[in-house]
Design brief:
This protein is an alpha/beta fold and about 150 residues long. The chain has one domain: Mannitol-specific EII, Chain A, CATH 3.40.930.10. About 40% of the residues lie in helices and about 20% in strands. It has a five-stranded mixed beta sheet with strand order 1-4-5-3-2. A hairpin with a 2-residue loop joins β2 and β3. α1 runs antiparallel to α2. The longest helix has 14 residues. The radius of gyration is 14 Å and the shape is globular. The protein starts with 10 loop residues before the first strand and ends with a helix. About 40% of the residues are buried.
């Protein structure tokens, strides 16, 4: 049976600000804990961030692994970390939502595209950023056809 892409336990709210490296590590660790990826995938996430920022605008970062680590993905999944005070992603960019993703095979690009389209809408970003429960976030993600 295929696992849900986003599970309630993979939505962490009201996290204290931390360096982006720790936020990426936290997102990767959640992906590992839920068995979406192997622990090595976290290295791929860190490597991607060193090459290019995963900050995409509107207060959102979407860390994910570089192609060389695709074999470390066991199942497609995502995790959402909410930082009310934000995480500094450099160059004046602050991420209030860090969304870790792992897309198995061809699902990766589709997941990334759906997420990017969802967070282009500032209304969606505000609702995600200020959500008080994981259920609120899950319902937004489900409504957008992501999970």
């Amino acid at each position: 049976m295929k696992k849900q892409i986003l599970m309630p336990e993979n939505i962490l709210l009201n996290l204290k600000t931390e360096p982006k490296e720790q936020a990426i590590e936290r997102a990767g660790s959640l992906l590992v804990k839920s068995r979406y990826v192997t622990p090595r995938y976290i290295e791929g996430m860190k490597e991607r961030e060193k090459k290019f920022t995963t900050y995409i605008g509107n207060g959102i970062a979407i860390p994910h692994g570089v192609n060389e680590y695709k074999k470390e993905i066991l199942e497609t999944g995502l995790v959402i970390l909410q930082y009310p005070e934000g995480v500094d992603f450099g160059k004046g960019n602050t991420a209030y939502l860090v969304i870790g993703i792992a897309g198995k095979g061809d699902e990766h690009l589709g997941l990334l595209t759906k997420l990017a389209l969802t967070v282009q809408d500032k209304n969606n970003v505000e609702r995600l950023r200020y959500a008080k429960t994981g259920g609120e976030i899950l319902s937004i993600i489900e409504k957008e056809g992501i999970a």
